[in-house]
Design brief:
Layout (H helix, E strand, L loop, with lengths): L8 H13 L2 H7 L14 H21 L5 H7 L4 H7 L3 H26 L2 H26 L7 H24 L9 H14 L5 H15 L5
Helix pairs in contact: 3-4, 3-6, 6-7, 6-8, 7-8, 7-9, 7-10, 9-10
């Protein structure tokens, strides 16, 4: 089936270098806005289950083997036929993008779920811990995403509005409840967590980032 398209060699090298120089902060805060895509029709329940299994298996496969992971093996491990995989994801590029967007969608959905069942500041803390996992997932599949034609910036750009909306909503609720200072800038929380992931070379950086969540929450409390 369709594999990753090959760009002109010189342009591919240049784009790859540019992508490596682009930080997650730029992916989230520094890219220009683009028009949103029209809403997609909701799939049937069985089709949605198949899609979810494919995405979870694909994320692990791309993390382990990179962009050249076998799509047929992904279908087999997801316990679906190859035809089912290709109906959902006609190309390798489509599957790569879907894996990334699925992580973002789960993060956005978590904001709504946590806000509905936890006090504001606890919802904010829980969501920030999930954000650490999101960063880790992005690092895992970033090498595979870099194979997309034109680089991964378009993929990351599409996720920015969802992430910004989630953190803004959570911080707003925590401010209104009096648990967080009114002058808190929501993006500062994300920048701090992303910064840990950028400068930490040790494999246990997620643990450091999770400890930082509690420090950030504590430092965001109103002065007594």
């Amino acid at each position: 089936m369709t594999s990753v398209r090959v760009c002109d060699k010189a342009e591919s090298v240049s784009e790859s270098l540019d992508n490596r120089r682009t930080s997650p902060v730029t992916w989230l805060f520094g890219m220009p806005h683009q028009r949103s895509q029209p809403p997609r029709r909701k799939p049937r329940r069985d089709a949605q289950r198949n899609r979810d299994r494919i995405l979870e298996v694909a994320k692990q496969a791309f993390a382990k083997s990179g962009a050249n992971a076998s799509l047929d093996d992904i279908a087999k491990q997801a316990e679906v036929g190859a035809g089912t995989l290709y109906r959902h994801f006609p190309t390798r590029d489509a599957l790569l993008e879907a894996v990334y967007h699925n992580e973002v969608d789960k993060l956005a959905a978590a904001e709504r779920e946590l806000s509905g069942k936890l006090p504001p500041v606890e919802a904010l803390r829980a969501w920030m811990l999930l954000f650490v996992d999101y960063i880790a997932a992005k690092h895992i599949i970033a090498p595979a995403l870099n194979t997309l034609v034109g680089g991964p910036s378009k993929v990351y750009e599409a996720s920015r509005a969802q992430i910004q909306g989630a953190i803004q909503s959570l911080v707003k609720r925590a401010i209104q409840s009096g648990d967080i200072r009114r002058d808190l800038e929501p993006f500062d929380l994300l920048r701090a967590l992303i910064g840990v992931s950028n400068v930490a070379s040790a494999p246990d950086w997620p643990q450091s980032a999770r400890r930082l969540v509690d420090i950030l929450i504590s430092g965001s409390r109103p002065s007594k």
